[in-house]
């Protein structure tokens, strides 16, 4: 039976990936002899026209081309930050949940402290000491500050799994700690880890957009967040160039919606109770 949530989510993600990969290769053919991404290539904040369907941005670049390029850059930031936060969170969550005792107590206190630390003032402070932002700098910083929730939920999962009978059997067979983690525990947590990575990716893309709107990360290449920030702060809305803000925001919403549909679709496919409920409906 076809799961429509999973199918729609995959199609949306595939559409965005194709646009991010193929779009920058195709768009130059619509501007022969010109570079639509060059600063000052066109008049700034030009109104929409057949040549520039969304007009031009405050730096005199074609808005459509900049948005298409921004999808790829925002995805890179999301993946870099999501991978780092998931990696740190899963490692610390496994150590806390499996080792337990004093190690668990110390790490749990540390994780809870990181969860309540106000991230925005720290990023504002760091922005004073970062001379030039790039997509990897932004992705790494977002990953460093967003791993605590993954660690906390991973710890809870490991605490539950380590008491299962097959883990006790592995201990009786004199399997080492690493063998139990990689052969017994990690396979059961792999779907959760993948979903955590997807969620962290979307979270970091949205966080980057929010930071750009308040001016953190100036100098970044044209990500979806920086496009929205420049459109909002540069007066594009007052000129009626709503697409330069609404379309990047819509793309971010689409990524969030697509990954949530995939998450719900996978749950319905692999969770027997949810699968039966979906079939009954």
Task: Report what the structure shows.
This protein is an all-alpha fold. It has a single domain, classed as MetI-like fold (Orthogonal Bundle), CATH 1.10.3720.10. It is built from 11 helices and no strands. The chain has helices at about 5-25, 65-100, 100-115, 120-125, 135-145, 150-160, 165-170, 175-215, 225-235, 245-270, 270-280. The longest helix has about 35 residues, at about 65-100. The radius of gyration is 22 Å and the shape is elongated. The model has no long low-confidence stretch (mean pLDDT about 80).
Quick structural gist:
The protein has 281 residues and is mainly α.
| Helical fraction | over 70%
Largest sheet: none
Task: Please tell me the CATH architecture by its name.
Answer: Orthogonal Bundle
Count of DSSP H/I helices: 11
Reported by name, the CATH topology is MetI-like fold
CATH class value: Mainly Alpha
SSE inventory with pairings:
Blueprint: H1 4-26, H2 63-99, H3 101-116, H4 119-127, H5 135-144, H6 148-161, H7 165-172, H8 177-213, H9 224-233, H10 243-270, H11 272-280
Pick out its properties.
single chain; 281 residues; mainly alpha; MetI-like fold; 11 helices; 72% helix; 0% strand; elongated
């Amino acid at each position: 039976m076809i799961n429509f949530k999973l199918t729609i989510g995959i199609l949306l993600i595939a559409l965005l990936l194709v646009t991010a990969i193929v779009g920058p290769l195709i768009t130059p053919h619509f501007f022969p002899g010109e570079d639509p991404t060059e600063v000052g290539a066109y008049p700034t904040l030009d109104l929409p026209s057949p040549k520039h369907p969304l007009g031009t941005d405050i730096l005199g670049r074609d808005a459509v081309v900049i948005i298409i390029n921004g999808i790829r850059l925002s995805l890179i930031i999301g993946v870099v930050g999501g991978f780092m936060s998931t990696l740190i969170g899963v490692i610390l969550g496994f150590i806390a949940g499996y080792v337990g005792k004093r190690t668990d107590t110390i790490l749990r206190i540390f994780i809870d402290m990181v969860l309540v630390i106000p991230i925005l003032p720290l990023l504002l402070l760091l922005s004073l000491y970062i001379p030039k932002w790039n997509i990897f700098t932004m992705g790494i910083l977002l990953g460093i500050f967003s791993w605590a929730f993954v660690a906390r939920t991973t710890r809870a999962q490991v605490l539950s799994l380590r008491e299962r009978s097959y883990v006790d059997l592995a201990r009786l067979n004199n399997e080492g700690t690493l063998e139990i983690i990689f052969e017994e525990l990690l396979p059961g947590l792999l779907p959760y880890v993948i979903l955590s990575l997807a969620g962290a990716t979307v979270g970091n893309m949205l966080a980057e957009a929010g930071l750009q709107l308040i001016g953190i990360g100036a100098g970044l290449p044209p990500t979806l967040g920086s496009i929205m920030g420049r459109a909002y702060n540069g007066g594009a809305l007052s000129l009626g160039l709503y697409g330069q803000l609404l379309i990047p925001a819509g793309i971010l919403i689409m990524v969030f919606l697509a990954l949530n549909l995939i998450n719900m679709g996978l749950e319905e496919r692999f969770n027997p109770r949810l699968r039966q409920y979906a079939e009954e409906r």
